[in-house]
Amino acid sequence: MITIESITNRNLSAALLTCTFNKPSTLSVGDLMLVIIGRSEDSGVTYTPPSGFGTVFNTNQTLDDEAQLYVSYKIATSDDVSASTFVFTGGGTSGNQGGVMYQIRDADPTNPIKGSNSGVVQNSNTPSCGGISSMSANCLLIISQISSRSTGTASNFAIGTDNPTWTIDVNQTTVSGVQAGFSSASALRSASTSTGNASCSAGVTTSEQVIGIIAIEPKTLFTTLSSDSVSVSDSTPDTKMIFVMNQNDSVSSQDSVSSSKSRHWNNSNKASSSSFTNEEKSI
Questions:
Q1: DSSP 8-state class, residue 165
Q2: pTM of the prediction?
Q3: Which residue has the higher pLDDT, 142 or 66?
Q4: What DSSP designation does 47 have?
Q5: Helix-strand-coil percent breakdown of the chain, rounded to 5?
Q6: For 16-83, where are the alpha helices, taking DSSP H only?
């Protein structure tokens, strides 16, 4: 099952030309690193991520005090496990900037981002954006939002269809410079239907806001085989034949299950051509 192993905060503070995240202490090769950066004022920044990180979206609210939400990701390699920090460059010189790094285990190693959407809002206590139409069962959903001129904390994260139970992972506010509020929440969702709109209560009614939703595809852990059999042909039926068959089905990197098999001849007279069947006995 896909899980969040750790959450690393980069607290809102006066905007700098970089945004740096410490490496999660339990980071392992194959983990998904999902970085979400929110900033107030001075939006429209083009971030340059560390090597190998891809961009999910970079959405700007350009009205008044402005706001920006940037999302980036990477499947961790051995070089990442050996690193100490991850530095995203390209910040601005005004406003506030903060964010979060999610360390996610058992995400799909090839295409971890199932889908995303984002939108800009102004002066709303319930910012929302469009949802994700193509979904898989058991995805991890994350909704994040940034509000300029905000000292309120967000709550009531939700999607429009088959809404799961949400955990608020981050709720940051600051009153230095241009006030800002950044928040992020996550939920596991068993349904494979489209999500409908994503929304939250921002805790402020006068603000420039950006809100976004990301769906993380879970890793496929194993494939089930329904049956197996082998056919043999014996030109000398009276000859004793011995078969050695072993089966060990890997379930994950840490767990395995062996199935016990019973073997018998399909026809008892053991004629010169007979089918030998390997039957499931127990697991």
A1: -
A2: 0.77
A3: 142
A4: -
A5: 0, 50, 45
A6: 78-82
